[in-house]
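Lab manual, section 2.4: Encoding a predicted structure.

Procedure: take the sequence of the chain (146 residues), apply the prediction step described in section 2.3, and record the output as C-alpha cells. A sample record is shown.
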Amino acid sequence: MGVRLQLQAWARNREIASVRLAWDAHQQKGRRELRDSLRLPVKPQGELAGLMVDEAVAEQLALLRANRERRQVIEALDHGNVHAAAASLASIDQHLAALPQSAVVVRERKLLEEKQELLQQDRKLSRKRLRRESLRSSLNVWESQA
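Recorded output:
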C-alpha cells in the first residue's frame, strides 16, 4: 500500500499524521490497538537530492500512478477525446520506460501497448479493458498471470 501526502511547509519533527489501528484478534480476548504517528525531519533540498532511491519503492509508486492515470484515459474516452486518451497512454508508457525494465514493468508496458492498439480499433473494448485494469487491487496491482 502506498500513501502520497501533499504537505505545506512544517516545523522540524512536528507530527504530520497519526494512525490508530484497532482489531479483534481471532483467538484472544479484548480489542487490540496500535497507535503511531508520522514525524519527518526537515532537510535541505540539496540533501534530499542526494538520498538513495529505493528501486522497488520507486517501481511500485510508478505502477500505482500508472494505474490511477488509466482513469484519466477513461475520462478522456468518455468525453470523446480519443487523441487525449492516446496521448495519456503514451505518457504513462514514457514514465515507465524511464524505470529499470523489470518483469512487472515490461508487463505493464505491454498492457499499455495493447490498449494503444485497441484504442484505434475498438474504443469501447479499449475502455472496458482499461477500466478492468484500473480496478486492480491497491494491495496487489498485478493481475494473475493465469
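Check your result against the sample. The radius of gyration is 20 Å.
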